[in-house]
């Protein structure tokens, strides 16, 4: 299916917001990454579009700002297929410049069926305006399914605004033309979840309430807002990474087996499992805001001059999720995320139920750990006899750390590279569908309202910058079914940053 819908040879990629940070740090570097790997046609054209008055030299400087380890000759070739148009976002005549350039390019290369991709590296407030002008001035009916639009999260800040955005977009383009980017769906370990689950009978047969005791998905950042608190203060950690990134990962972990790798089959199953999620208990949550580090060297959240002095913004949150279906009913699931913690790490922990005691007095639980970043890895904690004459057991692991298993020359695309390639191939599987988005906001709206209006029994705890998070975290996890290893029985595999795994 993807091959039939793939862009081939002569196509146009138009980047709106081409002078901004997102385009400079993510979009252009990702396009270059695909280009140097031969995944982006050397015959295509890339058009940058923005309001900034940029000469060729300045445009090239910005377009290559985020490129790392690129060969000079490859960068030169890449720039050779780029151009820039200065234009406003509310003027038809400026959009017609884009159309004219596309038509000239298509005529030059005898393209009968135009292939055009429009990437909106813009704030969501601009989406409806820009898309309406694209539809009016740049849409070509002959393109059919080869006319595509990429938009970036956030897709609204609550159910109401998400629906409003959808109501504005829906009349302009069909759902098949829209690709909503949640870049976590492009990460290698997230894309591997379906194969890991359904391609291994070892896991597929035990992936249920009869064998799994608890699930955790954690997102840890080792830095704070660093002067960008003015933006974050209006978003908070829940909107920033939990309603989107972590929820998307959870749906892939818990959905039923799709009939195929067809994108709609996968998205159908994600939507079905979301409909089985129970309401979040707004009183049984853990929320926090980071304060100064214990040594006083790192500032508190409120020390950020861009943040309101009395801000109650949540920079750490943990809450439980209950799924009421035959597979998961009764399994405690925790999503947790925070900023300014002791390390940067994103991982999934699936802890299995204990073995029958009998011959064992004390034996640890098996646990499957999927480390999304840094240093992608999958490892299974197992019990093994200590070598020698003793029958004493020790907790060890079966370890698939990608950097050890695969050569350094093995290409693992960055998340944005992977998603742009999916879009060019017409593969929607790793993009968010409209009904899926609607259900997710229904789930999170009551939680956000309770926190922001003070209608929760949970109190905002101040935790030190560089700590593990709120002091009540361990207690919270225990209350949600997680059993900690006995001290000294196991050492987690190290990451590239030489940081031992922690809660």
Automatic annotation (TrEMBL):
Boundaries of every Glucose-6-phosphate dehydrogenase NAD-binding domain copy: 14-192
Domain Glucose-6-phosphate dehydrogenase C-terminal: 194-483
Keyword Protease on entry: no
A Pfam family it matches: G6PD_C
Biological or metabolic pathway of the protein: Carbohydrate degradation; pentose phosphate pathway; D-ribulose 5-phosphate from D-glucose 6-phosphate (oxidative stage): step 1/3
InterPro entries, A to Z: G6P_DH, G6P_DH_AS, G6P_DH_C, G6P_DH_NAD-bd, NAD(P)-bd_dom_sf
GO molecular function: glucose-6-phosphate dehydrogenase activity; NADP binding
A biological process from GO: pentose-phosphate shunt, oxidative branch
GO CC entries: cytosol
Reactions this protein catalyses: D-glucose 6-phosphate + NADP(+) = 6-phospho-D-glucono-1,5-lactone + NADPH + H(+)
Keywords: Carbohydrate metabolism, Glucose metabolism, NADP, Oxidoreductase
EC numbers on record: 1.1.1.49
Keyword NADP: yes
Similarity section: Belongs to the glucose-6-phosphate dehydrogenase family.
Matching PANTHER family: GLUCOSE-6-PHOSPHATE 1-DEHYDROGENASE, GLUCOSE-6-PHOSPHATE 1-DEHYDROGENASE G6PD
Function: Catalyzes the rate-limiting step of the oxidative pentose-phosphate pathway, which represents a route for the dissimilation of carbohydrates besides glycolysis.
Protein name: Glucose-6-phosphate 1-dehydrogenase
């Amino acid at each position: 299916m993807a091959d039939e819908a793939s862009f081939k040879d002569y196509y146009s990629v138009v980047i709106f917001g081409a002078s901004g940070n997102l385009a400079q740090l993510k979009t252009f570097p990702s396009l270059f990454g695909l280009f140097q790997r031969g995944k982006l046609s050397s015959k295509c054209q890339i058009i940058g579009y923005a309001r900034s008055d940029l000469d060729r030299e300045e445009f090239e400087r910005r377009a290559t700002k985020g490129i790392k380890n690129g060969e000079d000759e490859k960068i030169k070739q890449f720039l050779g297929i780029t151009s820039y148009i200065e234009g406003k976002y509310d003027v038809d005549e400026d959009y017609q410049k884009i159309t004219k350039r596309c038509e000239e390019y298509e005529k030059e290369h005898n393209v009968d069926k135009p292939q055009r991709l429009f990437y909106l590296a813009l704030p969501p407030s601009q989406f409806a305006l820009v898309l309406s002008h694209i539809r009016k001035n740049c849409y070509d009916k002959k393109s059919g399914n080869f006319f595509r639009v990429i938009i970036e999260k956030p897709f609204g800040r609550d159910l109401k605004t998400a629906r409003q955005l959808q109501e504005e977009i829906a009349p302009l383009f069909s759902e098949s033309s829209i690709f909503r980017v949640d870049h976590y769906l492009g990460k290698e370990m997230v894309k591997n979840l379906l194969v890991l689950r359904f391609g291994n009978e070892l896991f597929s047969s035990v992936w249920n309430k009869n064998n799994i005791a608890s699930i955790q998905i954690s997102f840890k950042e080792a830095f704070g807002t660093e002067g960008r608190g003015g933006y974050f203060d209006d978003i908070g950690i829940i909107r920033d990474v939990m309603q989107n990134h972590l929820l998307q990962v959870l749906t892939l972990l818990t959905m039923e087996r799709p009939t195929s790798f067809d994108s709609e089959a996968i998205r159908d199953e994600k939507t079905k499992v979301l409909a089985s999620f129970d309401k979040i208990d707004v009183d049984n949550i853990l929320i926090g805001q980071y304060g100064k580090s214990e040594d006083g060297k790192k500032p508190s959240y409120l020390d950020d001059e861009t943040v309101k002095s009395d801000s109650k913004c949540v920079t750490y949150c943990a809450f439980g999720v209950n799924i009421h279906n035959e597979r998961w009913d009764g399994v405690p699931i925790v999503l947790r995320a925070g900023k300014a913690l002791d390390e940067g790490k994103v991982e999934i922990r699936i802890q299995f139920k204990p073995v029958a005691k009998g011959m064992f007095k004390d034996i640890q639980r098996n646990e499957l750990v999927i480390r999304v970043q840094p240093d992608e890895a999958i490892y299974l904690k197992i019990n093994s006899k200590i070598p020698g004459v003793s029958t004493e057991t020790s907790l060890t692991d079966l370890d698939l750390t990608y950097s050890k298993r695969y050569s350094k020359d093995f290409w693992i695309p960055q998340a944005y590279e992977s998603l742009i390639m999916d879009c060019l191939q017409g593969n929607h599987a790793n993009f968010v569908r409209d009904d899926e988005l609607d259900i997710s906001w229904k789930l999170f709206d009551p939680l956000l309202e309770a926190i922001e209006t003070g209608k929760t029994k949970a109190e905002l705890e101040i935790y030190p910058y560089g700590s593990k998070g709120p002091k009540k975290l361990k207690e919270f996890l225990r209350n949600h079914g997680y059993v900690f290893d006995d001290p000294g029985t196991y050492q987690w595999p190290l990451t590239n940053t030489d940081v031992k795994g922690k809660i």
